[in-house]
Amino acid sequence: VDLSRSEFLKLPASNRWGAFVREDDPLAALASVTPADLARRSLILSEQAGREMGAWFHRDLEDLDVVATYNLLYNAVMLARRGIGVVVSLEGIVDTGEGSGLAFRPLEPAIAADVFIAWKRYQAFSPAAEAFLAAIRSRWGAKRDGFK
Fold it and tell me: Which residues have a Cβ under 8 Å from the Cβ of 35 and sit 6 or more positions away?
């Protein structure tokens, strides 16, 4: 994420990357998925994932079978449910519980994404937004590393 034109707070949390697959997909039987597991599969990648995924696969994304890219994970998951491809995304955004038809398998080696709250530089905040940021700083001790 490019935060160069934003102010932000880095939260003390991270999300892990993984693959959303149909429950009946052979990858669902694995504890985690590797670059070799996904290299010959049809992939659905987020628009933002290019740099991280290329490094994880140890190859250019052009060398992979990327059948679709997405900005909204909901739409990508609909494609996965229909067997169009494997969705590579962050954990916890989509329901993979019983009856969802989907399974999430983390990437191995693991990739984690830092969590930030970001806003437009010089943004004027309402009292409620100011209170929200103060509560985050107080609760999690978030660093003010995005302030110039």
Answer: 56, 57, 58
Tokens of 137: 């700083």
Q: One digit per residue, pLDDT tens: the chain, 148 residues?
A: 678 889 888 888 889 999 999 999 999 999 999 999 999 999 999 887 767 788 899 988 889 999 999 999 999 999 999 999 999 999 988 989 899 999 999 999 999 888 888 998 889 999 999 999 888 888 876 555 544 3
Q: Which residues contact 90 (CB under 8 A, 6 or more apart)?
A: 15, 16, 17, 18, 113
The pTM for the full model equals: 0.80
CA distance 115 to 132: 16
CA pair distance 140, 136, nearest whole angstrom: 6
Pairing of β 42-46 and β 65-70: parallel
Residue 78's H or E segment, with its range, is helix 73-81
- Contact between 18 and 103 under an 8 Å Cβ cutoff? The reply is no
